[in-house]
């Protein structure tokens, strides 16, 4: 089996294309770049399709009686990419059959060892569509807009986080030499003590085989299972999910029970957001005589830099990074020194991203990327 393999945190399948919203692809491009430097085959792009917005879109769509939700989601995913640009590793979603099977297998095991329980709890249900809202939620139903609700008791899948240690700690972040994101740990630790992991959705991992009729797995948990399923398919012992700091803080608690599967352990590779509005400016490349590296800069280098600059890459930072890439591109060696390439791969596997602003190492990475003989095998002994 492979050791470290990077997968993108599933991207929500909203109403956009990747050309329109390139920032949405930052995690995908980061995972692709890191895996290529490790000499790995392409992994699938992962997408989040279990959303209330998706339920509502499908209900409003023309032809909903002839086009199923799963097909509609798949068509929307393919349309995210330019024609002929479907990823070599394929597309996977958090509602795929493999994900559902693995999720139910993991849940059964977690119920057996007491990590998860099914409890009969009071909830607020919409009197028209049955959508389940939190007890403190007021106002119209978020699913159908109806104003009426009632309190009822339902069996729910729950995770009592206080009985199982911190939901997010330093060891859950895959990064060597980076600052400890203590503020994220604080956010993650302030979620409710009792987390409900079953939800009312039209689409998702069906929990009825576990006795929870009409409910699916909370998508924040399902995102983690989607990565674990892809990692299991790929043979990755140490899957790493690329995700923004805010996203990690918001989903970590719900995914905590699902980050281990036998010897497999999931960690997070944090990255910042990128000011793509500035990076897309044609004038920027004219001023810096860098037209030749525009695609390389936006699609490859900026995602790598975002893993180092996890608070985000501001518009003011873009020109300096472009100049650094241009210099490294001009200085790239015909044959990278083997010791430098070995060290680079070790650092990539360890999550040490300080190399992206080291011009000599960056030139080595660029040279290896352009090696027409194909990627070299991963370095033995890399973590």
Account of the protein in words:
With 383 residues, the protein is an alpha/beta fold. Helix content is 38%, strand content 17%. Helix 4 crosses helix 6 and helix 5 crosses helix 7. The chain starts with a strand and ends in a 14-residue tail after the last helix. The relative contact order is 0.14.
Query: Helicity, in percent?
Result: 25-40%
Compute the separation of the termini in Å: 13 Å
Strand content bin: 15-25%
Shape: globular
The secondary-structure class comes to: alpha/beta
Spatial strand arrangement across the major sheet? 6-5-7-8
Q: Give the topology string: H per helix, E per strand.
A: EEHEHHEHEEEHEEEHEHEEEHHHHHH
What is the helix tally?
Answer: 13
Oligomer: single chain
The parts where pLDDT drops under 50 for at least 5 residues are 372-383
> Biggest sheet, in brief?
4 strands, antiparallel
Mean pLDDT, as a whole number?
91
Radius of gyration: 22 Å
How many beta-strand elements? 14
């Amino acid at each position: 089996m492979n050791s470290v393999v990077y997968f993108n945190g599933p991207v929500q399948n909203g109403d956009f294309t990747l050309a329109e919203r390139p920032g949405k692809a930052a995690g995908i491009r980061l995972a692709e770049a890191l895996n290529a430097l490790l000499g790995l085959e392409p992994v699938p792009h992962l997408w989040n399709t279990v959303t209330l917005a998706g339920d509502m879109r499908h209900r409003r769509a023309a032809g909903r009686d002839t086009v199923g939700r799963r097909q509609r989601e798949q068509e929307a995913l393919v349309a995210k990419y330019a024609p002929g640009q479907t990823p070599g590793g394929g597309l996977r979603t958090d509602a795929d059959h493999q994900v559902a099977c693995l999720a139910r297998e993991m849940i059964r095991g977690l119920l057996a060892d007491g990590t998860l329980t099914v409890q009969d709890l009071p909830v607020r249900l919409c009197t028209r569509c049955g959508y389940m809202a939190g007890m403190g939620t007021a106002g119209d139903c978020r699913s159908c807009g109806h104003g009426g609700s009632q309190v009822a008791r339902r069996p729910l899948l729950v995770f009592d986080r206080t009985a199982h240690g911190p939901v997010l700690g330093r060891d859950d972040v895959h990064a060597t030499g980076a600052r400890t994101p203590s503020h994220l740990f604080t956010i993650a630790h302030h979620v409710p003590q009792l987390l409900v992991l079953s939800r009312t959705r039209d689409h998702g991992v069906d929990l009825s085989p576990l006795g929870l009729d009409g409910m699916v797995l909370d998508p924040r948990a399902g995102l983690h299972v989607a990565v674990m399923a892809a990692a299991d398919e790929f043979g990755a012992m140490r899957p790493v999910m690329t995700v923004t700091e805010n996203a990690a803080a918001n989903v970590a608690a719900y995914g905590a029970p699902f980050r281990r599967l036998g010897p497999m352990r999931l960690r997070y590779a944090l990255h910042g957001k990128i000011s793509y509005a500035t990076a897309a400016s044609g004038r920027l490349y004219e001023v810096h005589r860098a037209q030749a590296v525009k695609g390389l800069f936006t699609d490859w280098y900026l995602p790598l830099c975002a893993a180092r600059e996890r608070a985000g890459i501001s518009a003011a930072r873009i020109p300096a990074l472009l100049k650094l890439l241009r210099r490294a591109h001009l200085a790239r060696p015909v044959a990278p020194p083997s010791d430098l390439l070995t060290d680079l791969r070790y650092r990539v596997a360890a999550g040490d991203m300080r190399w992206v602003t080291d011009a000599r190492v960056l030139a080595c990475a660029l040279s290896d990327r352009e090696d027409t003989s194909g990627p070299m095998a991963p370095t033995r002994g890399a973590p």
